[in-house]
Amino acid sequence: MPSHDHTIKGWILTSDANVFFGYNYQHRKFTDFSAWESQNWFMLTAEHPVGPGRLVLQGMASLEPFTLKALGSPQVFQTGETYKTAPLIDYQHPHDLIMGLGATYRIEAGTMAYVFGADAVGSPALGPTAFMHRESARNNPQVPLTHHYLDSTHSTPGVLRAGLEFKGLALETSVFRGEEPDENRLNIDQLRLNSYSGRIRWRRGPWDAQVSAGHLHEPESYDPYDIERLTLSIGFSGTVRARPLSATAA
Do 27 and 74 contact (CB within 8 A), yes or no? Predict the structure, then answer.
């Protein structure tokens, strides 16, 4: 569903959604799989002027706890998170029911902008735009195999954010919970601020580039070690010779 805007009593409401539904059959040696399943998410954003800036409230949900098996959707070479305390291998886990819930306050002063945010569930300043919002991945019913190396923090319980923007260039920092969500997909995990990150981002026209680094506190429960994550990406979403093209290199 393309993004739609509505205005109600001074609030600008923007809705967005993506739903895939189909029959997944994979013939593998010793591990045949078949299931009816759906990958999906739904998003609503509300924006309103408050004081010298603008307040943005954001919520995002997924029905995958009900439309995918608890083990997840089979995907060869995919990794990340657990099932019954064991690491998932060749499966993409279902996303939590609550994928996003937070607020952002933005103050513009001439060519500068100051941004502050807090999320019960949100995305820290680490990695490229999450795969479900990247045009290069939006129409793919399967999660990109790079997901848990680039943007697995897109649905983190507990995030504080701050940033400075100037003519398409943004400097961002955040503190957040480093651990991946647990196997209970219907709740919001305990909020902790035990990890941190920073990102430099540049956007102009169809281009979106970033370099970021973060310290993640024991992201996987079965591997109790901290991780230093470095990411670099450049994305293009525009037209080439009047034909649409979206691509991301990372």
Answer: no
pTM of the model: 0.89
Give buried/exposed letters for 92-122 (b at 16+ CB in 10 A, else e). Answer: bbbbbbbbbbbebbbeeeeeebebebebbbb
Q: Domain extents for the chain?
A: 4-249
Give CA angle at 60 (130, 118), nearest 5°: 80
Give the closest residue to 248 by CA, choosing from 74, 155, 132. Answer: 132
**Within 47-170, where are the H helices?**
64-67, 135-138, 147-150
* Non-local CB neighbours of 9 within 8 Å, separated by 6+ positions: none
**pLDDT value of residue 139:** 86
Average pLDDT over all residues of the chain: 92
Count the Cβ atoms, other than its own, within 10 Å of residue 90: 15
Rounded Cα gap, residues 133 and 249, in angstroms: 15
